[in-house]
Design goal:
The complex is a heterodimer of chains A (about 230) and B (about 170).
Chain A: E1 3-14, E2 17-28, E3 32-36, H1 43-50, E4 58-63, E5 66-67, H2 73-82, E6 84-87, H3 99-109, H4 114-127, H5 143-155, E7 161-165, H6 173-190, E8 193-197, H7 201-204, E9 209-214, E10 217-220
Parallel strand pairs in A: 3-8, 3-9, 6-7, 7-8
Antiparallel strand pairs in A: 1-2, 1-4, 4-5, 9-10
Helix pairs in contact in A: 3-4, 3-5, 5-6
Chain B: H1 2-13, E1 16-17, H2 18-28, H3 37-49, E2 53-56, E3 68-71, H4 73-84, H5 92-106, H6 111-135, H7 138-163, H8 165-172
Helix pairs in contact in B: 1-2, 1-3, 1-4, 2-3, 5-6, 6-7
The chains are: A alpha/beta (about 230), B mainly alpha (about 170).
Amino acid sequence: MTTVLEARDVHFAFGRTPALRGADLRLGEGEILAVMGPSGSGKSTLLHCLAGILVPDSGEIHFDGQRIDRLGETGRSALRRDKFGFVFQFGQLVPELSAEENVALPLLLSGVRRSAATAEARVLLERLGLDGLAARTSGELSGGQAQRVALARGLVARPRVLFADEPTGALDSLTGEQVMDLLVGSARAEGTSVVLVTHEPRVAAYADREVVVRDGKVLALTAEPAA
Amino acid sequence: MTVPLTLLGLLEREPSHGYDLKRDYDAFFGRDKPLSFGQVYSTLSRLARDGKVVISDPEAGAGPDRKRYVITDAGATEVDSWLTEPVAPEPHLQTVLFAKVTLALLLDRPAEQYLDTQRAAHMQRMRELTTVKRSGRLVDSLLADHALFHIEADLRWIELTAARLDALAREVRR
């Protein structure tokens, strides 16, 4: 399996408090990888380093063979916009925008024309069963609907890697399952790799394999797929 | 224990032949482990002996399976009690894991490693069940859910125990 994203001996500290202490991880092409671990273990910090949101104190992050930890903020920002998608626990939709505008946003930021971006957003909203809700703002959506809109936004630019940080953490079991079904179904259909941070085993069970972050290091309890 | 009661429950819907009972049982409850005809008929014989079912007049026909089984009042009462009584929680796996962890600590063996291995096995089973859930019918999905919640409960215990191993070690080695 081709490696898309890799962390090598990554260290990161918040001030004097170490969060990552030599974390290693590989994500394969099209692979869905669950990153588990108790609160405060460093799993979200690892996601932020992998996604180019944080820059490690030491160690390397490679994406498609390129060291992204050496990129400046502009380079990392472009990477996040063009190659990565994000879904967070609380959706984090822009409250003033409609569902459709929220989904179209990553494309607009990449310079896609408004009509094309809106058309693409509509396609994705329909695929996720939200076509009747395109005009609603986040305040007019249920938690599950808002999270599906957030998922549509994360996928609309056809990212190479989707980063999902506790994507069902704020949802009840049934709604959470629907979101995970859509997330995994869409990622498989598009061949998108996924880094899924969760502390819930039932959510992690949607992934191909899981790693555990413990004391700032990554433990692979199941074998990595062959390179 | 549940096979006789489940067959009784199926008979409460309507009187039935052994063949039809086996078919319905396998469709709903026995996909992983279908009943043998021998088990169906021996169970029905015991239920008849115990007064839970009676055999209605055999119908005319050439096949061997023309007996029709009808649930009795005693049988219906038993089904009703079974359905309304809660099932005793079964913490068997936790007991086994608890014994392993405690022994490992007593013997100065790598308890955390054992828990990690168990955790990986649990996650593997959860992945398999999630696949069943996503591809199967609603009945399969509900069965998978039941197993998933139980395995998840074990996993939570494993995580909590892993986080408390040092304290547990001090206690058992005292």
